[in-house]
């Protein structure tokens, strides 16, 4: 009989797992509908932490998709994302490992959402991890809060394990002394002090939709407002001075303005850089308890 907990080291990172492997990342059960699906998703049997494979995502210049009357291609975006099942309930624990190699572009912002929690029919995510200049940022979109979590150099060329706790509901968590604290994050087993994720009302403001639909994870590579960086890479390309405003973007002012909604129809001399990312060791559970016995000290 296998012991309940096995500890082992992979590329210098201590990983803990339950009595059985987490089912080859079955967190993602399907593609998010607008994903570009051709030559963007692979099962990598050589570069992995556990099980038979990791999930490798690659997104190149111009790769975008459309579904149900919506098109990333006409919304200044491109993505390949896997999507999990919907979960109801307030308190959630997430565990995943990611690998970023030295091909990830860092010379410009290149905002890239890599994992997010979404409510069906609601545009702003509840939370999301985003890479900016290669640095990892945690964003609570519905609260309008964000904070830097890790630098590019801390993530580069190694597996990084992240554990994340989030309380979507109004009631305070029993895990924290501060009743306003709704989230906590650990990187490679160490609690990270994050000055975001505090609220009197929980992390969700779209409560009616959340109570009806729950929330679901999406992970992969999601590039948005790509024309901003493409215009900076190609200053000689003539674009409308007025630009484009994403009126349903869920933000305000410059947050939802870019150079064009249709960037992939333009013949840019300098192309948008290719992004590559690996995922492994992923799970999502609901619990009010500290289920993985994480160190709560900051």
Descriptive account of the structure:
The chain is mainly β and 298 residues long. It has one domain: Sandwich (Jelly Rolls). Helices cover 6% and strands 37% of the residues. It has 3 helices and 20 strands. A 7-stranded antiparallel beta sheet has the order 3-8-17-10-11-12-13. A 7-stranded antiparallel beta sheet has the order 4-5-20-9-14-15-16, with no helix packed on it. A two-stranded antiparallel ribbon has the order 1-2. The longest helix is centred in the last third of the chain and has 8 residues, at 226-233. The two termini are 36 Å apart. Residues 1-23 have low confidence and may be disordered.
Total E-strand runs: 20
Number of domains: 1
Overall geometry comes to: globular
Proportion of residues in β-strands? 35-45%
Overall average residue pLDDT = 90
Order of helices and strands: EEEEEEEEEEEEEHEEEHEHEEE
Distance from N terminus to C terminus (CA atoms, Å) equals: 36 Å
Count of separate DSSP helical elements: 3
In the CATH scheme, the class would be Mainly Beta
Sheet with most strands: 7 strands, antiparallel
In CATH, the topology is named Jelly Rolls
What structural class do the secondary elements suggest? mainly beta
Low-confidence stretches: 1-23
- CATH architecture heading: Sandwich
What spatial order of strands do you see in the largest sheet? 3-8-17-10-11-12-13
Amount of helix: under 10%
């Amino acid at each position: 009989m296998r012991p309940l907990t096995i500890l082992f080291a992979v590329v210098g990172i201590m990983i803990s797992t339950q009595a059985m492997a987490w089912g080859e990342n079955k967190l993602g059960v399907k593609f998010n509908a607008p994903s570009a699906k051709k030559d963007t998703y692979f099962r990598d049997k050589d570069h992995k932490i556990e099980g038979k494979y990791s999930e490798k995502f690659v997104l190149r210049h111009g790769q975008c998709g459309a579904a149900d009357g919506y098109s990333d291609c006409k919304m200044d975006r491109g993505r390949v994302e896997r999507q999990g099942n919907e979960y109801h309930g307030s308190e959630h624990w997430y565990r995943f490992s990611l690998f970023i190699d030295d091909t990830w572009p860092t010379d410009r912002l290149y905002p890239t959402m890599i994992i997010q929690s979404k409510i069906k029919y609601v545009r702003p995510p509840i939370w999301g991890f985003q890479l900016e200049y290669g640095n990892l940022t945690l964003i609570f979109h519905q609260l309008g809060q964000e904070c830097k979590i890790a630098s590019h150099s801390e993530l580069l060329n190694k597996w990084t394990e992240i554990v994340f706790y989030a309380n979507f509901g109004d009631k305070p968590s029993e895990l924290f002394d501060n009743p306003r604290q709704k989230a906590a994050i650990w990187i490679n087993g160490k609690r990270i002090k994050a000055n975001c994720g505090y609220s009197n009302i929980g992390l969700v403001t779209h409560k009616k939709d959340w109570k009806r639909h729950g929330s679901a994870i999406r992970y992969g590579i999601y590039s948005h407002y790509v024309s901003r960086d493409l215009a900076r890479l190609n200053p000689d390309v003539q674009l409308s001075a007025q630009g484009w405003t994403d009126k349903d973007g869920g933000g305000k002012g410059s947050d939802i303005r870019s150079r064009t909604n249709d960037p992939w129809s333009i013949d840019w001399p300098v192309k948008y850089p290719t992004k590559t990312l690996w995922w492994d060791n992923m799970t999502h559970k609901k619990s009010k308890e500290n289920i993985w016995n994480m160190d709560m000290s900051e």
